[in-house]
Amino acid sequence: MPDRPAPRFHPLDFRREPEDQMLARAKALREELTRRRSVRDFSPEAVPLEVIRECIRGAATAPSGANKQPWTFVLVTDPALKREIRLGAEEEERAFYGGRAPEKWLADLRGFGTDEHKPFLETVPALIAVFAQSRGADAAERHYYVAESVGIACGMLITALHHAGLATLTHTPSPMKFLGKILGRPDHERPYLLLPVGYPAEGCEVPAIEKKALEEVLVER
Q: Domain limits at 181?
């Protein structure tokens, strides 16, 4: 495969803000992100798919190793496919909860009330299956820092969906090979994350948890 031509350069589109505006914007976003919670009880109400597409467009601008953009986002709304995905996920989750997971892991999960039953995968109006590409469609095209690149894109996607007014859940049944088969993805793509997207069900509750304080996660030198 011939090398790609070196990219051309053009002026950076960067808007510098006054410091008080920078801080105000940072605080506003932090407060908005603080309200983001993982949801497991979704309303079946339809959501505007163009909003989801726009969020995916934003996520696809994430930085990536050598600009390879090693991700594929599969938006699933077909009820039959959602049913297949639920059955595949629950099969893996039964094996996980039934013996694959260490007891300490299961003990840490008990307070959250999760188990092998995943009805939300059918109830939710949309699923986004994120796939990481180990290489390009051409076997000679290498990809670099794939896990890091796709992880950044997923973080941007979750933030964008929350900012747009949608609830999400980062669902990672392990292993997730069933997703590639159900969705017809090629061998060089591996499932990275399954993201249910919708509105919370009326009366939805989430665990009352606390996040670590800034001084617990920030080191300044």
A: 41-201
